[in-house]
Amino acid sequence: MISVAIKSLSLLQFNNLSNYPELLHFSTMRTGGKSTANYSSLNLGLNSGDARENVIANRNILSKALNISTDRLIFPKQTHSTTVKIITDEFFAAGEKAQKQYLHETDALITNLRGVCISVKTADCVPVLLYDPMRKVVAAIHAGWRGTAQTIVLKTIHRLAVEFGSDPTDLIAGIGPSISPDIYEVREDVHSQFDPEFYQDTNPVRSDKRVLNLWKANQHQLIDGGVSSEKIEIAQLCTWSDSDRFFSARRDGARTGRMATGIMLL
């Protein structure tokens, strides 16, 4: 990924997705916002204990950098599901209550609307962005271990094909900042849900735990779904290891901030 500044806000962007001028995408970092203490400073998550007014101010900062109104910055209500929702004109015609209900228990969004930024929030889980430059449609996916085990990336690729006619070989993909396979220790109840190629022994070896490679697991789902390997970029940035730039729930506990990874057609 490369570091960019948009209206003085520092963001990260994928090299491969940056080749498309009709596209704006990003992963935020923890700097540049209004929150304090564990949430310092660009916390974009409303449900981890931060003051609501600070999160709203932070979302305003991001929206301003993206040159959109805050109602065009869309976050699903993530619950580690495999639910994929499509943002259409009908979504914006609905009232605020109906919009919230529509986004409930949703962990991936798709849209072909211009000027609408679909985003997911993370603090160790894996954010995945997809772009179909032929059909002009984008997707943002939240893939924690539960979503990864239940193949949320594959399900999103399938929805793109069914709803928009996307050919998976056209898709460009980015796997964003998240906890690295060197750090992410899990117990048997978690790693047993994955193929052994996606986990290995801890160092030093602990009989009750393994380290899980969510980067590789999601990369394989992309490839299994038909995405060409050369069109997949893995950020290889560890949220746990880099406390200056990233929030990490594993490192700091659940009461910490959330980054956003989003994508928008211009």
The fraction of residues assigned to DSSP E strands is: 25-35%
Amino- and carboxy-terminal Cα gap = 21 Å
Biggest beta sheet summary: 6 strands, mixed
Overall geometric form:
globular
Number of helices: 8
Helix/strand structural class:
alpha+beta
Along the chain, the helix and strand elements come as: EEEHEEHHEEEEHHEEHEEHEHE
Helix content: 10-25%
Question: Based on the structure given, which CATH architecture is correct?
Answer: 4-Layer Sandwich
Tell how many strands the DSSP assignment holds: 15
Report the average pLDDT across residues: 97
Main-sheet strand order equals 1-2-3-15-7-4
Overall radius of gyration:
17 Å
CATH superfamily: CNF1/YfiH-like putative cysteine hydrolases
- State the CATH topology: CNF1/YfiH-like putative cysteine hydrolases
Q: Domains counted in the coordinates: how many?
A: 1
Q: Low-confidence segments, ≥5 residues, pLDDT <50?
A: none
Which class in CATH terms?
Alpha Beta
Explain the overall architecture.
- This protein is of the alpha+beta class.
- It has one domain: CNF1/YfiH-like putative cysteine hydrolases (4-Layer Sandwich).
- Helices cover 24% and strands 26% of the residues.
- A six-stranded mixed beta sheet has the order 1-2-3-15-7-4. Strands 5-6-9-8-10-14 form a six-stranded mixed beta sheet.
- It is globular and about 55 Å long.
What is the strand and helix layout of this fold?
Elements: E1 2-6, E2 9-13, E3 23-28, H1 52-66, E4 73-74, E5 84-87, H2 89-93, H3 96-103, E6 108-111, E7 117-122, E8 126-132, E9 137-143, H4 145-149, H5 152-164, E10 172-175, E11 185-187, H6 188-191, E12 199-201, E13 209-212, H7 214-224, E14 232-234, H8 249-252, E15 259-265
Parallel strand pairs: 4-7, 5-6, 10-14
Antiparallel strand pairs: 1-2, 2-3, 3-15, 6-9, 7-15, 8-9, 8-10, 11-13, 12-13
